[in-house]
Write a structure and sequence with these properties.
about 260 residues, alpha/beta, 2-enoyl-CoA Hydratase, Chain A, domain 1, 2 domains, three-stranded mixed β-sheet, globular, binds octanoyl-coenzyme A, Enoyl-CoA_hydra_C, Probable enoyl-CoA hydratase EchA17, lipid metabolism, ClpP/crotonase-like_dom_sf
């Protein structure tokens, strides 16, 4: 049985990591499974938003600790392994991705959440980067995205101690957008995904592209990129449809063109 499953709920695709005996740890099969799922979703215009979650009350316990030798064997430069391709696809994905986190999001699991656009957590969720306890450090954005998400002091406390933070702390520091009751993260994330899917997919993709550019550029460069995307959106059929629908007091029907 595949350790990753995808279900379609109208325009929302839910990808579930399903390897509960190892707390959904990321072995090659899990990473290949998410990579394949994202590839199919990327090509399917009917899917407008993605939710990633974990089965059995755990998001993901990080890299598979039994498989570190595979990681050691990978070349430092030019690696085309499923792992490298998976992280590249996740972080460069054009459609919005929401992480629905129940239970532990540790190591690579925390890095998946940090790479998603929005994180919704249940009140019992725990986030951590315990890599130093294993003699390694995060290798998929954990040092870079965590510090941007929570600020220097909290990030370094987490990175140096390996201690977890609670959902409440994650909310306070901005790692997560909302905290819901235990067992409700997927439902809450899916509701947000449906609201996103009702908007112009082109405008949402342009907003994602412009907003994430802020991590890579100066303010002036980011503003110039925003202007570029703004004018692309303004010239789209979707922007005319949005305008007509508002003025005609009806629901818009967006096509992504
Ligand atoms: N990898 C492999 N197996 C795991 C992992 C994991 N990350 N996490 C849990 N498991 C397995 C356990 O070994 C156990 O297996 P078994 O039943 O056969 O003994 C089973 O899952 C259940 O685990 P627990 O009994 O520990 O379950 P608990 O609910 O008590 O605890 C925890 C759950 C808190 C998630 C706990 O299992 C834990 O701390 N796991 C490890 C978390 C961790 O350290 N993650 C970071 C991994 S490193 C990383 O992500 C980046 C690595 C970069 C590598 C570079 C290498 C060169």
């Amino acid at each position: 049985m595949s350790p990753v499953s995808t279900t379609l709920d109208g325009p929302v695709a839910v990808i579930t990591l399903d390897r509960p005996a190892a707390r959904n740890a990321l072995n090659i099969e899990v990473q290949q499974g998410i990579l394949d799922a994202l590839g199919a979703i990327r090509r399917d215009d009917a899917v407008r938003c993605v939710v990633i979650t974990g089965a059995d009350g755990v998001f993901c316990a990080g890299a598979d600790i039994t498989a570190f030798d595979e990681l050691r064997a990978a070349p430092v430069v030019g690696d085309r392994s499923a792992s490298t391709m998976f992280w590249a696809e996740l972080t460069g994905f054009p459609k919005p991705i929401i992480a629905a986190v129940e239970g532990y999001a540790l190591g690579g699991g925390c890095e998946i959440a940090l790479a998603c656009d929005i994180v919704i957590a249940s009140e019992t969720a725990r986030f951590g980067v315990p890599e130093v306890k294993l003699g390694v450090i995060p290798g998929a954005g954990g040092t870079q995205r965590l510090i941007r998400a929570v600020g220097k002091s909290t990030a370094l406390m987490m990175l140096f101690t390996g201690d977890m933070i609670t959902a409440a702390q994650a909310l306070r520091t901005g790692v997560v957008a909302d905290v819901v009751g235990e067992g409700e993260a997927l439902t809450a994330a899916t509701l947000i995904a449906r609201r996103i899917a009702a908007n112009s997919p082109l405008a949402v993709a342009l907003a994602k592209d412009a907003a994430l550019r802020s991590f890579e550029s100066s303010l002036q460069q980011g503003l110039a990129h925003e202007q570029r995307n703004f004018h692309i959106a303004l010239g789209s059929a979707d922007s005319r449809e949005g305008q007509d629908a508002f003025l005609g007091k009806r629901r818009p029907v967006f096509t992504g063109r």
